[in-house]
Write a structure and sequence with these properties.
8-stranded mixed beta sheet, binds S-adenosylmethionine, two-stranded antiparallel ribbon, 371 residues, 10 strands
Length: 371
């Protein structure tokens, strides 16, 4: 799984158990990112629709959600990966842009990324294995990058992992049908269903994912774009157009709109106590769907918050932020169903279906959080 800001690693077992408790046969992951949550829903037996606006998330969803492992020719996949992995490096756009002009990968890996990416298009363009091979390449490149987890900058001295030879591995595919959709959630939320269970995990701040992970966008598009700045971002990222979830002024309206539009019996919204809207407002938004309960899970923040912010030369230009926050799961739907879905996490209940908020762990939702 690639490094991804806001990835719900810790909450995946909880979300999977919720889907199982709801008996969901059709599930929606509306801001799917790494597809980690969508994969858990699929593993729980649901037919999943995974939606995101980035190119990278679409490829991951085509691989992990839309590809039925039962239909994949394992021998052909292993042969393809072995052939691609054995290719000699051929320096090209990635080497020049991300190894010479910037330092996201070591040149020996950059040249192999160039060769393998080109071969995937030349040999597998119309093959159902295309997204699977591309996912394998993105994940392999992620294992040898030289960042702290974001592609806004690279670290001053090569990260130890960047010296390793990049190696392709087969993605672990799941059996069963599923759907990958690249779209703006606001435009499609009402037209995707009906679902039994919907999970919403929107961005929390102004930083766009296509910018945070611009190298994956370019690797998928494979369009050798003009670039700008020390991080060599795609020029189209200069376009001020951004997701309504990345603007404070439009965030609440966009979220309220998708919460209202999604067709699902149970809706679960992920959020944290550093959000642009407070927990009371989230509960009000979700009340259009019936009763609302809120669970709180104290959690470690992104590693960058712990080590402080650095510029591309490795100089510290910021100070470490808070180390912990509280991840909230807002659960909405019919009262009996909400109670059934949240029942195993009584200790994490910070707001029961009828009642007010109480403090949780090291932080109190709505107060600005942990000391
Ligand atoms: C917090 S991340 C989701 C992380 C995901 N749950 C995981 O575990 O990997 C938010 C995601 O929302 C996507 N996104 C942002 N604005 C969007 C929009 N308007 N429509 C659809 N997806 C959007 C981003 O590309 C990003 O992948």
């Amino acid at each position: 799984m690639i490094k991804y800001l806001g990835s719900k690693r810790r909450l995946v077992p909880v979300l999977r158990a919720m889907v199982e408790r709801s008996g969901a046969r059709r599930a929606l992951d509306l801001f799917t990112g790494t597809t980690r949550v969508a994969q858990a829903f699929k593993a729980a037996g649901a037919e999943v629709t995974a939606v995101d606006r980035t190119r990278c998330a679409e490829v991951l969803a085509q691989t992990y959600v839309a590809t039925d492992a039962g239909t994949v020719d394992r021998t052909a996949l292993e042969r393809a990966l072995a052939e691609l992995d054995a290719l000699q490096g051929v320096p090209g756009y990635v080497t020049d842009t991300f190894c010479v002009r910037s330092r996201f990968f070591q040149p020996h890996n950059g040249a192999r990324i160039d060769a393998i990416r080109q071969a995937i298009d030349e040999r597998y363009r119309d093959d159902p294995l295309h997204p699977v091979l591309l996912t394998s390449l993105i994940e392999a490149a992620d294992r040898v990058d030289s960042t702290t987890g974001l592609q806004m900058a690279y670290v001053k001295a090569w990260a130890p992992r960047s010296f390793a030879r990049m190696t392709l591995r087969p993605p672990v595919l799941l059996a069963g049908p599923g759907h990958a959709v690249r779209a703006d959630a606001c435009a499609v939320a009402g037209d995707l269903g009906p679902f039994d269970f919907a999970y919403l995990d929107p961005p929390y701040n102004q930083h766009r994912y296509e910018s945070n992970y611009h190298i994956w966008e370019t690797l998928v598009a494979w369009d050798a774009p003009e670039h700008y700045g020390v991080a060599c971002k795609r020029v189209d990222l200069r376009d001020p157009e951004r997701s309504p979830f990345n603007r404070r002024a439009t965030f609440a309206g966009a979220l309220a709109s998708v919460v209202k539009q999604v067709q699902a019996r149970v809706l679960v919204l992920s959020y944290n106590d550093e959000a642009w809207v407070g927990p009371d407002e989230l509960v009000d938004m979700c009340a259009v769907r019936g009763d609302v309960a809120v669970l709180g899970f104290p959690s470690d923040r992104y590693v960058g918050a712990r080590i402080g912010v650095h510029d591309p030369r490795g100089r510290r230009v910021g100070t470490p932020g808070r180390l912990r926050n509280v991840e909230l799961l807002v659960v909405a739907g019919d009262r009996a169903e909400v109670r059934r879905v949240v029942a195993p996490w009584r200790d994490q209940l910070v707001r029961p279906v009828s009642g007010s908020f109480r403090s949780v762990g090291t932080a109190v939702p709505g107060t600005g959080g942990a000391p």
